[in-house]
Amino acid sequence: MHITKTLPLALVLAASATPALGASAGDIYVGGGLGRVSYETDADLTLNPTAIVGRLGYHVTEHIAIEGRLGFGLTSDDTDIGSNNMTSNAEIDLKQLAGAYAIGHLPITRGLSVYGLAGFTYARAELTGRAGGLSVSDTLDDSGLSYGVGTQAALTERISGYVEWASYLDQDAYTATAITAGAIYGF
């Protein structure tokens, strides 16, 4: 019981003792992360490829930044679908992800903030399916509005780590979201 009361206080004190995120208007940052993308269709098909995503941003104010991102698939994902009589396979391979976003930070402590993002994403992926002796291939080439939330914590004076969830595409037939973890270097 004693640990459960002091642990949250210790986490808050540890976070407040870390270096400040320290962004000022005019500051530039670069970073990158590893993401697990979730591609879900209306037909209850879920595939989870991985991607590497680079970030380049500019702080308009202390708490607002504009950011560009460029990502590429690292691994594809496939799954077997169908019944015992006829088994088929579906696979997705993310080729490219690019976008522009506005990022709004809300400081929690000196070295910790939460943020929201809103913007526009373009994505291209290769979809393939196999059933019996037939093979079908299609290219997903879509763009749309995006949004997400994350948290960023200072690790050193210039380096911070982040974890975020983003809805990159929300189309009629599918959604593409991602959970990404990475690091940012501020100049």
Low-confidence regions:
9-19
CATH top level assignment:
Mainly Beta
- The strands making up the biggest β-sheet line up spatially as 1-3-4-6-7-8-9-10
Strand coverage percent: over 45%
CATH architecture: Beta Barrel
CATH fold title = Porin
Structural domains: how many: 1
Mean pLDDT: 87
Give a count of the beta strands, DSSP E runs of length 2 or more: 10
Q: Work out the radius of gyration.
A: 20 Å
Query: N-to-C SSE series?
Result: HEEEEEEEEEE
Tally of separate helices:
1
Give a short synopsis of this structure.
The chain is mainly beta and 187 residues long. Helix content is 9%, strand content 71%.
Give an overview in words.
The chain is mainly beta. It is built from 1 helix and 10 strands; from the N terminus they run αββββββββββ. The protein has one helix at about 1-15, and strands spanning about 30-40, 45, 50-60, 65-75, 75-80, 85-110, 110-130, 135-155, 160-170, 175-185. The protein has an 8-stranded antiparallel beta barrel. Mean pLDDT is about 85; it is low at about 10-20.
State the main characteristics.
187 residues, mainly beta, Porin, 8-stranded antiparallel barrel, 1 helix, elongated
Write the layout of secondary structure elements.
Blueprint: H1 2-17, E1 28-41, E2 46-47, E3 50-59, E4 64-75, E5 77-82, E6 87-109, E7 112-131, E8 134-154, E9 159-170, E10 174-186
Antiparallel strand pairs: 1-2, 1-3, 1-10, 3-4, 4-6, 5-6, 6-7, 7-8, 8-9, 9-10
